[in-house]
Amino acid sequence: MASVLRFRKLCYVESAVKCTSVGYESFEIDEKLDEKEEDVLSANNFALEINKKRKQPKRQPKEWRCLDSCCWIIGYLCTTWWLLLFCYHCLPVTLLRVPELPGPGVRLKREGLTALHPVVLVPGIVTGGLELWEGRPCADGLFRKRLWGGGSFTQIFKRPLCLLEHLSLHYETGLDPQGIRVRAVPGLVGADYFAPGYFVWAVLIENLAKIGYEGKNLHMAAYDWRLSFQNTEIRDHALTRLKSKIELMYISNGYKKVVAVPHSMGVIYFLHFLKWVETPPPMGGGGGPGWCAKHIKAVMNIGPAFLGVPKAVSNLFSAEGKDVSYIRAMAPGVFDSEIFGLQTFERVMRMARTWDSIVSLLPKGGEVIWGNMDRSPEEGHVCDFSKKSHSKTSLTTNNVNNSDVNRGFLVKDLANYGRIISFGKPASVLHSSKLPTADSKEFSRTSTSENFNNFSCGEAWTEYDEMSRQSIQNVAADKAYTTTTLLDLLRFVAPKMMRRAEAHFSHGIAENLDDPKYNHYKYWSNPLETKLSDAPDMEIYCMYGVGIPTERSYVYKLSPNSRCKSIPYQIDNSVHGEDGSCLKGGVYFADGDESVPVLSAGFMCAKGWRGRTRFNPSGIATYIREYRHKPPTSLMEGRGIESGSHVDIMGNFALIEDIMRVAAGATGDEIGGDQIHSDIIKMSERINLGL
Amino acid sequence: MSKPLSFYRSYFLSKTMFLRRRNGTDSSKTRVADPNIEKDGADNDDKKKDQYKMPQRRNYGSKKWSCWDNCCWFIGFICSIWWFCLFLYNTMPDSIPQFVTMAITGPLPDPPGVKLRKEGLTANHPVVLVPGVVTGGLELWEGRHCAEGLLGKRLWGGSFGEFYKRPLCWLEHISLDNDTGFDPPGIRVRPVTGLVAADYFATGYFVWAVVIANLAHIGYEEKSLYMAAYDWRLSFQNTEIRDQSLTRIKSNIELLVATHGGKKVVVLPHSMGVQYFLHFMKWVETPAPRGGGGGPDWCAKHIKAIMNIGAPFLGSPKSIALHFSIEVRDIAALRAQAPGLLDKDVLGLQTFKHLMRMFRTWDATFSMIPKGGETIWGGLDWSPETETVNNSAKKGTDNSTRNTGGNGNICDTKGVNYGRLISFSKDWAETHSSKIERVDFKHVAKGDKLTNSSNCDIWLEYHEMGNRAIKAVADHKVYTAGSILDLLHYVAPKLMARGASHFSYGIADDLDDPKYDQYKYWSNPLETKLPNAPDMEIYSLYGVGLPTERGYIYKVAPPSDCSIPFQIDTSVDGDSEDSCLKGGVFSGDGDETVPIISAGFMCAKGWRGKTRFNPSGIRTYNREYKHAPPANLLEGRGTQSGSHVDLLGNFALIEDVLRVAAGATGEDIGGDRVYSDIFKCGHFCRHFGMSVKFEKTGFEVLENVLVSILCVVLKKEHKEMTSH
């Protein structure tokens, strides 16, 4: 403090000295001004002097210099701010509280609902927190701090490369690299908030607490969402712990069965768990065939990604999503400017490809489910972008010149959803007979011929660096890929990753479920290759949002730059469909919850498991609960109490009410059975799957 | 930022604009007034000059540094510098502070985790941590209206969150129901689970964090560590009844053993957790309806070692003062220094009464009342510590003169009767028992109510006593560990009735008596048998070399309507400067909270070899850690501390823990390691005077100050509430 004061004094002296040396005139003027009685000057003189003074204001000792002004402003603002803050804190707490919307918890409590069945929450991909247990020197001081989710992401901004290194897994093993241990954050804090203020489970937990839930009957099954499901067991015993936890809650809550609430990828994780727990010990949990029937009342899947999400395709293929490609289109330089050597995408892609779990989200069921080159179950879906009015207007202005004639009768370019990746718009529109066929043989031919690239890029970052230019172009040559050929494509562009991941996941459809090969754990998370357990009293709910355009397939192009360590493909965001078509910015949209298309979320409950099927031999009851998306009506609602979007749906009051009623003992029929807004039934009928 | 800047600019612009306009009008005026100039020249000139000068003055005069501007400038200056420094600090690579520290202190010793990792130790046995009283976090699951919006926030531990703003609300939620010992209706406060429950108590104040960090260095992670969090306010059995805490611990230990290929767990209980775990071991082997039904060999199958840290096996005298008058040494000293601050009736604070009421609702605190009566804690004229006073005192003097370089803060135990836990006035503390006439207080009828006690805001059982009863209590003059129970029963009958149903403080004559199957005896090591697990090891790890409260001198507080009638008499000091009696408190050796008798006796004698308390001959080890204050500020709370909580950061202790967790046995780490006289037993055990430094950790002082400030706020709010 004292030194600062002294410093200030010095400043003063200095400026005074300056003035004496530089500003003789001004001093004289000062004197003149001060001595009133002496100077009888004419008006002109005065004006002149004033002008003079204005010209040289900096020489005045008492003048506001720029720095002083800045200090003054800052001081002024700070003081005001503190004053306001002080006032704010002085006010009684009750006065300032934002009147909260009474959640369903309060209402249901008044109805007399109380906690009955223990609840297990299973978080999805990305939303779970990760913390550091052992790291490289660059991550010093971050021990047991969150690297991902929960608190702040400040660390990511502070040392991005270090964090990327720690969050990546080993490319070959799919486990942690040597010397790094990053683990899931356990407990409810693991996934209640993703970032400050961005709730994931918090609203649901809060409402459950209102009717009497607490730590002993509410459990968050945190797991490391980067790993393949079986690896979470191998490394962290996550499945064993979940089993023990469920058994404990079952016993300590008076032998009440558990209601499981998985979200997003947690859905297939829990599916994996259900199969694992009944499998005998070396591979499974050894709970015996009646375990699920004994311990689980209902599985309430929120935004279930049963059959995968197309988003995972674009993520693995080019580390892009709809939003990212928009940003790239708007500000082309930001992400991949070479000046900074940033190469954000490449780094992100490198990280994402080490995560096995993303592979689990690739579309499952192949062409039977997702459609082939010419037809798909969603055919005839009418896209309505009206909610995004600005984008619509931009679309119409684009289309004025080419489609103002008789728009209504033009054959709309049918969205060929089945072509999950097409290179160039023609490939996405033309009939399949006019397209060159892409089959796996072709891949194998090229890959064997040119495995070694002739231009050296140093350390290979992604497996794209190991591909030759020729094969990159081969892949792109006016082709379209369906979900089946897509897997071949990925196997071609990223052979190591797929080899690693396909040891843990399978994406097909079982012909004969009794085939002993389906006892292997890699089939457990695919609902089309496993039987549900024998638990006739169990209930399965599919609860998801509808009414939001959801990515369904992509139009790609070769990316312009061909330097090393770059991703050779990009979503072609210049491609737009005509008005009313579902193609926008290189992405075909279908109905869904912004991440998961209706098809993936609803098919199993609507058809695959409905009644007694070969996938559901014991006839477990299934219910579809759809929630139509309504954007928040006012700011007070935050992210909306009727939202249908993938994560925000966890704050949807209707959904929360359903969960609470079931947790308090209601059955699916009591809460109203199916509740369907979309065309899921029609779509399911179009899918030709032997049951 | 741009907004205020533009505001500022516009402000200046408008000002100059204004000036220009003024100038303009002025000049036009002068032009109009031109013909008149000749009429009154000088006068007009003056006016003109004024007219020009006025704006000028405004212009430049306002730029003179007024006080306000100076302040603003100054604040702005400081802020800018601060931000600049902050910016520099944040951009600085992380290694620099470390480098600076290294430069000042020389190379820091490797933390034990790093050191042992170099030796090749790796994670082996899973580790269970059992936190003690107060250090575990509590969170809110359901609250009254005043706690709206705080759901899931920490009520205790962490940063204490929002609650410091609404102290009365906080008190209401943290207190339990006085009759049932559970939460009051409409409130659910539950323990935080997971390692976060007790890694840090408040921000920056570690509890388990250092141990966890070092365990992580040799390969432990979340899957092999388990924090057995429980609600430390409840009595032990009630944690099972309400939260199934014991069942959860059992299930988690079984899970740990199963997932680690049958490797048994190493348990690290701290403070009250020690008793909690004793209770657990007994519970888990008791058949199902009353216990966990684990069968008679559960402990043998699942537990490798129990490493009790700062173990109050036999209670702590601190709890008596807390129960009796919600005081401890530090608070009493604070009260003496600023007598008005804490219990000003003028402000109507009544901090103590609030705290006392809260404290008395916590059943768990009964577990800390000294156990074993006079046999352990000493009678009127003897105590285990002072058997050979003269001898040991001299020895102690020699030792400490050498240690402390001559400025001896040596505790002189001469004339100290540690057995007298509470004495009214110093005289009674010192005179021989034959000369004390004690008046029995038990038959003095209560009910001679204090005047206006109905006016008291806060209900306390003291208000139901009468003046006569208070006087009778004081007339009894001296209380030992045995009679203290009678005293507590007398002054707080309801409370003790509740406590007595969950805890017992005696010594069993016949351990096979079926009455000892009842759970209230399970946490008392003198009334239970250890489980049948010959391979298990029990360690007692505790700090020594710090003055620890051992006995108190009380006085009757000046009568007032609603106050607590007894107070520690802080004016009483020992005869010599280095007496053990300071500020009304007798100090003995220990770790500042637990005297060594309580911490060490069971392992040194009670369980050593095959005894009736330890029928299967479980091996026991005493490991003492001599307190050494931190050498400099950079060490924080010290790497060689022996104080009750800071012991968890003691490198030697951590090393022992790591070695055992990595598979070593008690013999491997060196068996017993003793500094005190815990083994030299004349009658029981005795102990010599040790070097004493009356130092308080900064934290404790801060805490006390915070509490007192909190109470000021608290009362204000309370007044507001009552006035409505």
Set down the secondary structure blueprint.
The complex is a heterodimer of chains A (691) and B (724).
Chain A: H1 2-22, H2 24-34, H3 43-55, H4 66-90, H5 93-96, H6 104-111, E1 119-122, E2 130-134, E3 146-148, H7 154-158, H8 160-167, E4 181-184, E5 193-195, E6 198-199, H9 202-210, E7 218-220, H10 229-236, H11 238-252, E8 258-262, H12 265-278, H13 291-295, E9 296-302, H14 310-318, H15 322-330, H16 332-336, H17 344-352, H18 356-360, H19 366-370, H20 389-403, E10 421-423, H21 425-429, H22 440-449, H23 469-476, E11 480-481, H24 483-493, H25 495-502, E12 539-546, E13 548-558, E14 569-571, E15 583-584, E16 587-592, H26 598-608, E17 621-628, H27 653-663, H28 680-686
Parallel strand pairs in A: 1-7, 1-8, 8-9, 9-12, 10-13, 12-17
Antiparallel strand pairs in A: 2-3, 2-4, 5-6, 10-11, 13-14, 13-16, 15-16
Chain B: H1 2-33, H2 41-61, H3 67-91, H4 95-105, H5 112-119, E1 127-130, E2 138-142, E3 154-156, H6 167-174, E4 188-191, E5 200-202, E6 205-206, H7 209-217, E7 225-227, H8 236-243, H9 245-259, E8 265-269, H10 272-285, H11 298-302, E9 303-309, H12 318-325, H13 329-337, H14 339-343, H15 351-360, H16 373-377, H17 389-404, E10 422-424, H18 426-430, H19 467-475, E11 478-479, H20 483-491, H21 493-500, E12 537-544, E13 546-556, E14 566-568, E15 581-582, E16 585-590, H22 596-606, E17 619-626, H23 651-661, H24 698-723
Parallel strand pairs in B: 1-7, 1-8, 8-9, 9-12, 10-13, 12-17
Antiparallel strand pairs in B: 2-3, 2-4, 5-6, 10-11, 13-14, 13-16, 15-16
Helix pairs in contact in B: 1-2, 5-7, 20-21
